[in-house]
Amino acid sequence: MKTQRGMTLLEVLVALVVFALAGLALLQTTAQQAGGIGRMEEKVLASWLADNQQVQLHLDKTWPEKRWSDKTVTFAGEEWYLRWQGVDTGLDQLRALDVEVRRKKEDTAALVSLRSYVVRE
């Protein structure tokens, strides 16, 4: 009787298919993770910008108008679109301040929306 040494061609092909499928799954997962990290970085930068804008308006003691004001800024080497407005709260001495950050003025949805409150002194 003859003993078998090694693998048959069919076994080698099956092993190659299994490793190829595992490699494709790993590649797809890595690509999804990289895209998620980029999106997370964008949202963090946008939240910093919104927070900075609110702090600046508070430091300037600006009473927020009830219409949108806007500006474009360069931050982290990229252009960002910010807009803000005051919102009535029902109290004469208190007004909400909404700040939104978008990548472009034409974007329909804001990356970040942030609300704080301003007291008239």
From TrEMBL:
Cleaved by prepilin peptidase. Pfam families: N_methyl, T2SSI. It is found in: Cell inner membrane. Residues 40-118 form the Type II secretion system protein GspI C-terminal domain. GO terms for biological process: protein secretion by the type II secretion system. InterPro entries: N_methyl_site, Pilin-like, T2SS_GspI_C, T2SS_protein-GspI. The keyword Cell membrane applies. Keywords: Cell inner membrane, Cell membrane, Membrane, Methylation, Transmembrane, Transmembrane helix. GO terms for cellular component: plasma membrane; type II protein secretion system complex. It is a single-pass membrane protein. Its main location: membrane. Belongs to the GSP I family. Type II secretion is composed of four main components: the outer membrane complex, the inner membrane complex, the cytoplasmic secretion ATPase and the periplasm-spanning pseudopilus. Component of the type II secretion system required for the energy-dependent secretion of extracellular factors such as proteases and toxins from the periplasm. Part of the pseudopilus tip complex that is critical for the recognition and binding of secretion substrates. This is Type II secretion system protein I. It comes from Chania multitudinisentens RB-25.
